[in-house]
């Protein structure tokens, strides 16, 4: 019996070794992340690690990659790409729309973010694109402003200049209400009406959305529009509290554009908040809410002359990628919105900064998110001065589908005399 068990184990190991060699030999010219061991490859580096530890191990691996490397996890090979030329080639490739198996375990259902079948995703995306056109975005502004103003009113009760406030609680409630009000009707209890609306949307081939697809896409909108924006504005409040000179510039710009209460919030007035936009962009660079993306090759893919066979996984880590010194200078950890000045951006590769990904599978709600975040910051800073005792070096991050802070997003708020 013991001999049969041993023979079975040896057989399994040989099969794993064969599968690994079969896959790896197609990518033999791509350097392997170290340490790597026979049969298991890099698997031991992730063995018995938490999701947070595994994420930071992956970040460490990416920081040692200039263009491309491979990570061998038993029979699976991950192709790590970390250069804008390669990212552009992958993300702009219409045959690179499929996503790998681990998106099934992200808890996002089968909506736009995690739908693995690229062809199915493309049909759904074409149907949902009109939801985020300019006319619709304009109609959302008054709702966003009303919810942001309500949030500011709720913050008044804790704005005593010294009490620590966990901003994610207030901003999270605000973004949740914005998403409900703009995409699901006036109130959350009007969700059935939105289901009827989506049920009447047909694919190009006349196929209707199923109940599961409706639920998945509504959940995707909720998660994408709520969590990501809430995290970004909470990080932004912390950074503005740490850098009062930057906060002062944002407030000065807001005072200049919205010089009295008669100035309406429109797409044009929001565009005038150029420094505010640079602040948000810098927050997204340092703290991308979705810190990685992955694609699965449907056909052969050629990168740097290497032929990568079908059904291989290509991985991008935006957290590490946005900290490349050759694109962001010798101090990429420093918070500096002026990195996004036109003169500073000149010559930088257009794919060096990808907080919303890029290509066909970029974030459908990118403009929606930027509008809501500018409005939320406007209403917060018009009423309050933000401060914090924390330093940027104190911030510890964890990965739980999104990039989150370990602990509260604590700041203190003080009512402004005039804004």
UniProtKB/TrEMBL annotation:
It is found in: Endoplasmic reticulum membrane; Microsome membrane. Gene3D superfamilies: Cytochrome P450. InterPro entries: Cyt_P450, Cyt_P450_CS, Cyt_P450_E_grp-I, Cyt_P450_sf, Cytochrome_P450_Monoox. GO terms for molecular function: metal ion binding; monooxygenase activity. Its cofactor is heme. The keyword Lipid metabolism does not apply. Heme binds at residue 363. Keywords: Endoplasmic reticulum, Heme, Iron, Membrane, Metal-binding, Microsome, Monooxygenase, Oxidoreductase. It is a peripheral membrane protein. GO terms for cellular component: endoplasmic reticulum membrane. The keyword Transcription regulation does not apply. May be involved in the metabolism of insect hormones and in the breakdown of synthetic insecticides. Belongs to the cytochrome P450 family. This is Cytochrome P450. It comes from Culex pipiens pipiens.
């Amino acid at each position: 019996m013991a001999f049969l068990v041993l023979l079975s184990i040896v057989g399994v190991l040989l099969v794993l070794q064969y599968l690994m060699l079969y896959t790896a030999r197609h990518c033999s010219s791509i350097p392997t992340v170290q340490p790597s061991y026979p049969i298991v490859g890099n698997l031991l580096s992730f063995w018995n690690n938490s999701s947070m530890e595994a994420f930071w191990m992956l970040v460490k691996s990416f920081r040692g990659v200039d263009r491309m490397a491979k990570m061998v996890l038993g029979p699976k090979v991950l192709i790590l790409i970390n250069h804008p030329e390669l990212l552009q080639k992958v993300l702009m490739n219409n045959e690179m729309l499929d996503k790998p198996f681990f998106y099934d375990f992200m808890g996002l259902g089968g909506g736009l973010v995690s739908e693995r079948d690229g062809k199915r995703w493309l049909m759904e995306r074409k149907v949902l694109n009109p939801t985020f056109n300019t006319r619709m975005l304009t109609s959302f502004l008054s709702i966003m402003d009303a919810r942001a103003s309500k949030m500011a009113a709720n913050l008044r009760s804790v704005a005593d200049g010294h009490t620590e406030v966990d901003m994610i609680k207030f901003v999270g409630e605000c973004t949740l209400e914005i998403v409900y009000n703009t995409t699901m009707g006036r109130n959350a209890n009007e969700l059935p009406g939105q289901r009827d609306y989506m049920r009447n949307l047909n694919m190009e081939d006349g196929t209707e959305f199923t109940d599961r697809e409706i639920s998945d896409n509504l959940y995707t909108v909720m998660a994408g529009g709520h969590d990501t924006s809430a995290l970004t504005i909470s990080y932004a409040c912390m950074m503005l509290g740490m850098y009062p000179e930057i906060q002062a510039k944002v407030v000065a710009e807001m005072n200049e554009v919205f010089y009295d209460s008669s100035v309406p919030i429109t797409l044009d007035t929001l565009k005038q908040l150029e420094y505010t936009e640079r602040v948000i962009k810098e927050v997204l660079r340092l703290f991308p809410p979705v810190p990685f993306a992955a694609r699965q090759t449907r056909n052969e893919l050629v990168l740097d002359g290497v032929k990568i066979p079908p059904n291989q996984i290509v991985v991008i880590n935006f957290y590490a990628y946005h900290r490349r010194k050759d694109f962001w200078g010798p101090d990429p950890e420093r918070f500096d919105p002026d990195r996004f000045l036109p003169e500073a951006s000149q010559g930088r590769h257009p794919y060096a900064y990808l907080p919303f990904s890029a290509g066909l599978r970029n974030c459908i709600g990118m403009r929606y998110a930027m509008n809501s975040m500018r409005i939320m910051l406007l209403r917060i800073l018009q009423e309050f001065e933000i401060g914090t005792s924390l330093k940027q070096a104190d911030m510890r991050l964890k990965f739980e589908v999104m990039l989150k802070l370990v602990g509260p997003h604590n700041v203190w708020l003080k009512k402004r005399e005039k804004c």
